[in-house]
Specification:
Elements lengths: L9 H20 L4 H18 L7 H33 L6 H16 L2 H12 L3 H25 L3 H9 L4 H36 L6 H10 L3 H37 L1
Length: 264
């Protein structure tokens, strides 16, 4: 007899009905309507018509913004990885006591609790407009993401290799070098390469609030109603992210080959 995806129990159906009723209520409260949606489609079509063909009005400004976004993403990724590695080790429950792992995991959770735009606004107020605020913002975001993945990767390692190194009386650094890192290094590099790609995207977003990068140029173009220049900037951002994704995939492929060769 085929299994049902949802059991026919009154409590389950009641829960679905309550959820559906709340969705309808929320849609009514937020003024969602079909005429408004159709109006949005019409306005969107007019906006797209004004964006094409794309025109590069200020090539120097756009090139400078793209380069600054790239620099912000790379610096933030390096700082985030360097800080996330010790935090990830401290957060691993299979390596550290609870009074060390709990504060480390709490700090990582706090870094993930706020959207990068909110963090960027705080840093812009603290250190002023420019790339410094963007680097600090994306460093916090990197710690929240990579720190969590580092911790989970370490907690999933085989304990046999760790216990074998520990049985020799080796210090903690040797335990990490011979018992932990060989099992997770390829995953660490994969996490780091993905974070660079993520920071490239986020560097555009935080720049809109004044944290440096191409986002500021994009926002200024919107304010001047230079929608053809906006289109050119968007296409340049897409090209930059695609190139970064290709390079990250290439690095991961090389590391996978190296790892397999090492296993052989």
């Amino acid at each position: 007899m085929a299994a049902l995806a949802f059991r026919r129990r009154p409590a389950v159906w009641l829960g679905w009905l309550i959820g559906l009723a709340y969705v309808i209520y929320a849609a009514a409260q937020l003024d969602l309507s079909w005429p408004r949606f159709l109006l949005g489609l019409d306005n969107g079509a007019k906006f797209l018509d004004r964006m094409f063909p794309p025109v590069i009005i200020q090539p120097d400004t756009m090139a400078k913004g793209l380069l600054e976004s790239l620099e912000i993403a790379l610096l933030a990724s390096v700082l985030g990885v360097l800080l996330s590695l010790p935090i990830g080790i401290m957060g691993a429950r299979n390596l550290m006591p609870w009074w060390v792992s709990t504060p480390a995991r709490t700090g990582v959770a706090l870094c993930r609790s706020f959207h990068p735009v909110i963090v960027a606004i705080v840093f812009v107020k603290a250190v002023g407009f420019g790339a410094m605020a963007g680097i600090l913002t994306l460093t916090v975001a990197s710690i929240g993401f990579i720190g969590k993945l580092f911790t989970e990767a370490i907690e999933e390692i085989s304990p046999k290799q760790v216990e074998a190194v520990r049985a020799t009386g080796a210090p903690f650094v040797s335990l990490l070098s011979y018992g932990v890192f060989p099992q997770v290094m390829s995953r660490f590099v994969g996490f780091a390469s993905y974070q660079v790609d993520s920071n490239l995207r986020n560097s555009t977003m935080v720049g809109i609030v004044g944290a440096g990068g191409i986002g500021g140029t994009l926002f200024s173009a919107f304010q001047r109603y230079d929608y053809d220049f906006v289109c050119a900037i968007i296409l340049a951002i897409v090209a930059m992210i695609m190139i970064g994704e290709t390079l990250a995939r290439w690095v991961r492929r090389i590391l996978d080959v190296d790892a397999k060769s090492g296993d052989d």
